[in-house]
């Protein structure tokens, strides 16, 4: 078994005056990375896929697959950030209620907004 599984949690924390080396990824930076990944995924699906239906080239196919692969990183990042939010929340019930409230609000907007697919 790895030793870090049995190490007390306070050992993992850094001292206030201790310098950090390397890349620092805060929660906000991870959110921005996840948003960019999701944007790439949606651009590939919304713009490149219709272009591929008219004419498929190797470069377009490679670009489409690369953008979709990068876009698939968004969901695990959002799951990690949600788990971190639960872990660091002082009131888990209030955190869950806010997540459910946002989900209901988003679904209401999704199902009541007009879509180009409605005209078919």
Q: Summary?
A:
This protein has 5 helices and no strands. With 120 residues, it is an all-alpha fold.
Characterize the main sheet: none
Note the total helix count: 5
Overall mean pLDDT stands at 83
Number of E strands: 0
User: What is the succession of H and E elements?
Assistant: HHHHH
Q: Rough shape?
A: flat
Distance between the termini: 58 Å
**Alpha carbon gyration radius:** 21 Å
Strand content: under 5%
What structural class do the secondary elements suggest? mainly alpha
Contiguous runs where pLDDT drops below 50 for at least 5 residues: 1-8
Task: Summarize the amount of helix as a percent range.
Answer: 55-70%
Describe this structure in words.
The protein has 120 residues and is mainly alpha-helical. The longest helix has 28 residues. The N terminus is likely disordered.
Detail the topology: elements first, then pairings:
Blueprint: H1 9-12, H2 27-54, H3 58-71, H4 74-88, H5 92-112
Helix pairs in contact: 2-3, 2-4
Question: Which terms summarize this structure?
Answer:
120 residues; mainly alpha; disordered N terminus
